């Protein structure tokens, strides 16, 4: 082969890589847009919930009742539905073809439906003691209403299981948009409910809308899975070698996924002792804002990342998977570090702008902001931990992150028990953030035993990010104090704009590898234009 031939091959290879990267960037951009829209409607849903019900007895009952089915789902299945499915499905797909992969998917679907149906039956029968455990300090009338609402909502667990089975299938074929859209559909249902018949049906109708939303999350994905070749049929799943492998992975993965739901249960129990039980809704509203903020980018990154990591590991490219995970962590932290500082500094005006109207008082907003400010400190750790656990799952090494999650849960329990008694309501937020930080640090240390996930150059880039974030935080703090804007929304928007400008300028002065690459691509594209 002559030099010219080599250059042609190299050029074509470079073009393929460039096209692949552009396609990945385009998919990520679309997912960010759809996820952002879903989060906007999710925030609108929460605004309307706070506006209609505030921290009243009905709101307390609804929060406890709606949390229980999802919490039980998280305990029994949690991230297992996709995390145990995707690596094995991709392995079968790569080695044996589509027919065998879909046969496994069908058996797995039947397993999940069986488990979720069993959880639903148990939940309906034991709703009263379960609500009593979850929210022991709420009033008797609120508890009675919560039990009735809970029994009505439990069937949504079946739809949740089906929805995530479809997510696993679609993402394995790089079909990311429908899984990203599904929460938007659910949020739209609830928003429409508030604007139509909420005044007539109250929390009962809201509970029905939540169940309908989860049904639609599964239903909208079914046609796409069908077009790919998946056909659901009742089938036996016990005895299947791949199902046994999935079940072997399931318990450690399940424990890994317990961190968030266990912390939520612990937070709910301790929060029920504040403000006559209204502490539950305050922590819940803060947690929802936290999930909305952290979810836009980390959801997109991890949902794009996990199938690609699984394929890399299935084809033996462990080094490529590790480099991809390390780069993903850096890109996430590039966004999440300044975001965390911004939310920490502006927690009060954010909470007031989003929630404070009608039945949601200034005092409610102050207490909610108190927790949100502390939750914000956990945003970078939560984002990094999402990538770290996905890399473990892709490797089908699940014991290490399981131990990290158990250690983090223990930290949360101990800190809540101590801090609630010493610092009060804020202790809940401190304990939650500390537990997430412990989990992320342990997972990074355990993964690094196989080879450095982050190089010295990466750590130097992280230091640059921290310096840029500190500069941004100082400027935003000074700007906020100097201007003293009275309108909360205007205050958040102005401070946010200043923060983005300062962080962008600082990042150009102290560029990371990712910023330099982005600059080169922009310059290259502009020169071609």
Give structural notes.
- By secondary structure, the protein is mainly α.
- The chain has two domains: 28-233 and 240-454, no CATH class; 455-529, no CATH class.
- Helices cover 85% and strands 0% of the residues.
- It contains 23 helices and no strands.
- The protein has helices at residues 3-53, 57-76, 80-83, 85-96, 98-125, 127-134, 140-153, 156-172, 177-196, 198-219, 222-228, 241-257, 259-271, 279-314, 318-345, 347-355, 362-376, 379-394, 399-422, 426-448, 456-483, 488-509, 513-528.
- α9 (177-196) runs antiparallel to α10 (198-219) and α15 packs parallel to α21.
- It is globular, with a radius of gyration of 24 Å.
Strand content: under 5%
Unreliable spans? 1-18
Number of domains: 2
**Individual helix count:** 23
**In this structure, how is the largest beta sheet organized?**
none
Q: What is the radius of gyration?
A: 24 Å
Shape: globular
Provide the structure class: mainly alpha
Helix share bin: over 70%
End-to-end C-alpha gap: 34 Å
**Series of H and E elements:** HHHHHHHHHHHHHHHHHHHHHHH
